[in-house]
Amino acid sequence: MACLCAAAAPAAAQTTGMDLAKARNCMGCHQVDRKRVGPAFTVIAQRFAGSQGARDYLAGVIRGGSRGSWGPVPMPAQTQVSESEAQQLAAWVLSLAQASDDGAPAATAK
Annotated binding residue at 1? Predict the structure, then answer.
């Protein structure tokens, strides 16, 4: 039974993260597993996997924007995203590295 609960937690986080990403228009520039305007979420997750402070850093980038990290197109500040939502989104993005490392399929955008 514990095994089922442990497996359900990442799946629930991915569903909630995807829903929040859609609600906050992240999917307008990003996709889970393919580059769109910005990098794929799985690529971001792999770059920052295991990095200390990655969640806080990514949450800051979501709210404050960035330029030059992924090429010439800057990411505008997403001021409509609250600090709490930015933390949730960052945690979800980082969880995608674990899903792909486990051999389980990452959540895909439809």
Answer: no
30 marked among binding-site residues: yes
**Global pTM value:** 0.78
Segments forming the whole domain that contains residue 40: 2-100
Bridge partner residues of 66 (DSSP):
75
Q: What is the CATH number of the domain that holds 46?
A: 1.10.760.10
Is residue 5 part of an annotated ligand binding site? no
Return left, alpha or beta for 17; rule: phi > 0 is left, psi -120 to 50 is alpha, else beta: alpha
Total domains present in the chain: 1
**Rounded average pLDDT per 10-residue block, the chain, 110 residues:** 46 75 96 96 96 98 96 96 97 88 48
